[in-house]
């Protein structure tokens, strides 16, 4: 399986491990991708941190309800994209392995549990350009390759 790396591990820096799982969710025509905008204005793929005792799929299903109010059929796994970055918001260096999946079907079940995020659909290339993390951009590129988009 594919592993990509973004950012550089700096010597002498203490990194906090933050394992995350994220979803590429296209619309029915595979023309737009939904993104989540955090309160700080940054755009991300839906998903987030894998909590203790969760596997990838359990964590992703929980995150989709929290962020989107969606239930979903989790499809293809695209791989792991490791990212090293500094969060000014948290004043912390993170090592963030991101496990990227495709959502092949979803249903809006309820309002998102997290009401502080903004949600928006973007054309594929615009979605890529808006994303803050290289690992998330990579996830959409992997999705594009698998669907020849």
From the structure above, extract its key features.
149 residues, globular, alpha/beta, 9 strands
Produce a short descriptive summary.
The chain is α/β, with parallel strands linked by helices and 149 residues long. Helix content is 22%, strand content 42%.
Structure description:
The protein has helices spanning 56-67, 124-130, 134-147, and strands at 3-6, 16-17, 20-24, 32-37, 43-44, 47-49, 70-87, 92-108, 118-123. With 149 residues, it is of the alpha/beta class. The strands form two sheets. Strands 1, 2, 3, 6, 7 and 8 form a six-stranded mixed sheet that branches. Strands 5-4-9 form a three-stranded antiparallel sheet. A hairpin with a 4-residue loop joins strand 7 (70-87) and strand 8. Helix 2 runs antiparallel to helix 3 (134-147). The model has no long low-confidence stretch (mean pLDDT 95).
């Amino acid at each position: 399986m594919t592993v990509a790396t973004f950012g550089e591990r700096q010597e002498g820096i203490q990194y906090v491990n933050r394992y995350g799982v994220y979803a590429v969710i296209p619309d029915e025509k595979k023309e737009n991708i939904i993104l989540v905008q955090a309160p700080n204005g940054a755009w991300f793929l839906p998903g987030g941190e894998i909590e203790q005792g969760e596997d990838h799929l359990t964590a992703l299903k929980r995150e989709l309800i929290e962020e989107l109010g969606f239930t979903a059929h989790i499809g293809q796994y695209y791989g792991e994209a490791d990212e090293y970055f500094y969060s000014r918001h948290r004043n912390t260096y993170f090592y963030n392995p991101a496990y990227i999946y495709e959502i092949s079907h979803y249903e809006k079940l309820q309002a998102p549990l997290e009401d502080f995020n903004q949600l928006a659909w973007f054309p594929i290339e615009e979605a890529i350009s808006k994303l803050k993390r290289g690992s998330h951009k990579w996830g959409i590129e992997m999705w594009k390759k698998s669907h020849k988009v």
